[in-house]
Records
---
Amino acid sequence: MATWFSATSVIVQMAAAYGITPQNQGWITAAVQLGFVTGAIASSIVALPDVVDPRTLMRIGIFVAAIANVLIAFTHSVPLALALRFLTGAGLSIVYPPAVKLLSAWFARERGLATGILIGALTVGSFSPHLLSGAVDWRAVMLGSSALAIIGIPIISLLPTSPAALPPTKFDITAVPRILKDRATLLADCGYWGHMWELYAAWAWAPVFFAASLQAAGSHARAGPLIFVAFGLVGALGCIVAGALADRFGRAAVSAGAMMVSGTLSLSIGLTFGMAPWLVFTGLMLWGFSVIADSAQFSAAVTELAESAYVGTALTLQMGIGFLITLVTIWLIGATRLVLGWQHVFALLALGPALGAWAMIALRRRPEAVKMARGRR
């Protein structure tokens, strides 16, 4: 997952090299989101995650993402760089959902914790390029993140074959309409889509916000390593803690609670701009913990609620639409931050967790909710 935010972590250097204006810097991340959306929706329409061995899909996806990412370091064309970022996202669209599907089959018990650990790994991997940003040339960050991704291919080869719990599936054009008609699954999806309204815009712009805040406070601290801690390490911890709590107290309850916390931080984090770096960093750690804590539980819920033969398709569809939503908010923050200022722009993200929390509370009240977390709503 290091290829996801590789370019985002060096956005200032890339923008200077390519002449990208501040208003358009969000497209460096948005291009990956668009590639993921395109790949996820296309693969879900043909039920690819349920027809092809997940390990094969993951190896192909890693290879495509790593090669596309490394080529960015050798191009001087903005359109080509964006096309390669798109291809990076398309590759990752057949890495992430199949991994969640495999875990759902291996872990009938403690599925929330297992999926939380997986999303925690995604979080650490995604933010790993920030460790190098500002310390080396931006092209070295692109090369290093691709090298990390390639390491994933032999690791995937060590995975056992698909468990017997995964039934063989044939292509069915009616799978997606049936998934969308399932009210309980749709509510879990709506919770996830509200969560995604906030998540990737926060991930994409919080590093820029923090760097600007440090500069405004007269600090010479490197933002990159601190962002890795706040959103990578602390975020991964949030995934694991929320996973353990969800298995014990219920997915809907924990997810709604996490969104209430992260939504509150979306409203308030901008007010710390330019203040003492330790205060801003503390706020970012709280946001990093809560903004991703619930993510795994939406995926786990879908694996428990959706038709068993098409779990992979349901997951990919959920993620595809979710990442489509991120395109809107990543652009929105970039387009309005100069008008609203860092103090207020993140408040626009609070709408998503508010609606997502409502959806999960509604799901908790439905009879199908007993399928989640062995009866814990």
Note: Residues 51 and 170 are 6 Å apart (CA to CA).
---
Amino acid sequence: MSTTPEAAYDNGDVWNARTLSMGGALAALGVSTPSLFLNPANMPFARVYDLEALGGLTPEAGRATAGLAIVDSSLNKFHLAGGIGGAWSQMDPGGARRTWTDVRAALALPFGDNFAIGATGRWLQVEQAISSGPFGQSYVSDGTPSSSIVNAITVDLGATVALADALRVGAVGRNLTVPGTALAPTSGQLGIGYGPKDVAVEVDGMMDFTTYSKPRGRLMLGGEVFVADHFPIRAGWRYDDGTRVHAASLGTGYVETAWSAELGVRRDLMSDHGSTVLVLSLRYFFDAVGNGAPADAVDAF
């Protein structure tokens, strides 16, 4: 790799195109499939039935990710929203050969139109090669010969409140079972977003309590505008205090009534070991109510 291990792994996060291109700032406005990997409490704020396939690539880290997610937040008699998703990733195939599988299931319950809570159960399994570094066997960085280096079930809890028609605040705690490993760090994220029709702006702060010798933060900012109801234009920025890296991101796509194709890219700036992340997302919006036309796909953004 030509980047650092912590930057390559990036907390094990699963990015879709919208999340990546908005700098990761979607804890308040990230509805539908992104909410599975960000804040499950956001699911009830969009009435959609959405299937997403995603693929990601970080050339400098030899990292590749393939994932699938489905969320149903169309109205039912219990007013519940739910989803399942999973991703497989690898990094440094010529060295550490780390691979990990991330499977999630989430439920969210709204209380009226302005408040919702949600929970995500996550199974994470991480494998890593043995004696693959330039100095052979290492107690510091090796894998394990007969078991995974991580095989854990963790829980995320989130809450989102709508302060006005277009103003929301979201908060989420991740890996609250406290696995005690930087491969599944315990963290908290708070976001405030403003999203009237065809426009979204959000700023988030995140605190990582596990990866480093003391808590380190991350500041994220993102914006989005829809042009001609079909073309999202996105931009984002984040500063990670752990890696001391600024990163800029951009994204676009095409959104139809029943499907969308989106691309996001993020590039580290002012870094000696910078990396580039590319994500492609393909989404399909089901006809949840059987009337021949799904809800407007723009509602999922």
Note: The radius of gyration is 19 Å.
---
Amino acid sequence: MSDRRIDAFFYGLFMDADVLRESGVAPSNPRRAYVKDFALRIGHRATLVPSVGSRAYGMLFALTHSEVERLYTAPGLEHYRPEAVLALPLEGTPAPALCFNLREAPSPHERNPEYAARLQRALSKLDFPQQYVAAVS
């Protein structure tokens, strides 16, 4: 497979470059970004769901196709599927990116407080808007 890098938008714990490195991935070109008309939903895992007027924050990283495949063939992540999004960096120009989402959104009663707390810490560490961080649950 090619060593060519593509942009991927991560909105969950993969926003943390250290987590990516622990998964055997060498992310490059990190950029804080958001996608319009999507909202974060956390059940047992996180996903983005279409939501007109919403904004979901995350990180853009450049990865190889092999690295993307390595991440999403790991146990527990096989239900995620790639979607094309337009990521809007907080600084810089918009970039097309792959974003991986669950086929089906978690049900409204599904919760994972531990995951939400870890995600809040990652978002705070990356200096995302405090209002967004506080809304993660």
Note: The chain has four helices and five strands.
---
Amino acid sequence: MDQPTIKTLGELKKSGYQPKTVKEEIRQNLIKAIQQKQNPFPDILGYEDSVIPDVERALLSKHNILFLGLRGQAKTRMAREMVNLLDEWIPIIEGSEINDDPFQPISLYARKQLEELGDATPISWWHRSERYGEKLATPDVSVADLIGDVDPIKAANLRLSFADENVIHYGIIPRSHRGIFVINELPDLQARIQVSLFNILQEGDIQIRGFKLRLPLDILFVFTANPEDYTNRGSIVTPLKDRIESQIVTHYPKTVAVSRAITAQEARVLEEQMKRVEMPELCRMLIEEIAMEARKSEYVDQKSGVSARLTISAFENLVSTAERRALREGHPKTIVRIADFIGIIPSITGKIELVYEGEQEGPMNVAYRLIGQGIRTLFTQYFPDPQSFKKSTREPQNRKSKPVNNPYQPVIDWFGRGNDLLLLQDATDEGYREKLYQVDGLYAAVKQFYPSSDETEVALLMEFLLHGISEFSLISKKGVDAGGFAFGDILGSMMNMSLGSFGDDDEEEEDL
């Protein structure tokens, strides 16, 4: 809708405009959305049956809200989406610092305008996209930042007494009057600063430097906090928490499908990258599995959480890893490989907090371990569980039953004969496929389960199969300095370790 053309208070009165509070605006617009079966938060995925119903109930109740959850759980995103529930345009008295309602002015400036000009008071229009204020709580935030203070420079320039209301410089909260205001990481705010919010939440007014001033602000407050903050950095003072009517607990995606949809929505990948790089379904799924593994890993601090930003950054880095190889080799197009997951390690190490055991293991080793665990979990969705064949070989066979053929045995036997395989991440597509075809039984094992796959898909599945059976300890796998993996016989690897030939602690290779 275009901006209204009404310019004066008199014209606004004739139009029949009826003022509403912020919370009433949101309530009425939310009611319409619910009745029309519309999702008021279309960009928020995975909360349809949990967080969003709680938020809708809070907004229908005209409550201020506290989002309580670990990092990367879309708490601030939810607050920003609430702007869409505001009316598109509202009138304000032109020139007002705190967006005064022409029918209910609260600032000295606005009251004087009405006294002097009456129905000729100029009106301007405020779009809902501008009716949002946000402040990250840090220890250095002051009452003056949030509420306001006396401005001595203004007093000197205007030759006014400090007792004059005109010398007040309003903080960010009064300037958010008639809008939505968010304080992120509330526990980081000093207790004495949190106390300054009591009156705003309960009585709807503010006090500045002892002024006999009452500003009944009209604001929807949204606060965010991390449960871990209560012990690490601070706490929400009890009287303030008591004044926040609804506390809503957020969570991470509950399924890989939801996590993948969030990654696809949020990842910033250029069109030219996607033209050059093919991202297989398997690799998309593996990214999400790695994050799921991190959220239950004994090496990762679960109280800190594993942000959804991990999968988003990992997706972007994975595309760029394959793109870099294509650019170096002069290929117009390439496909993401399992070896390319080396390129997402910076996305993992930068997004997880480690417990003591994880610190002892080292961030790089933990990242490799998470990738391996993700491969192991995903492997049984694409191929038979290798452990089922281990069990069948131990159990006595019924004479009438047919022996169970292990599809991985030819591959294991090939490495058992002393062969090894080096798959470098930067190898050309042709060289990559040639290496894979050297392994006896590998192509046949993949074709047994994916007979209609083309050669490009088969090559990826062959590599995935090697990584998968290595995670089940059927063959050995090591990371190499050049960027890639070396596969070999598991027994030979164990013997080398026992003989001390595995390498010194200072070597760069990782035993995976």
Note: Residues 309-329 form the longest helix (21 residues).
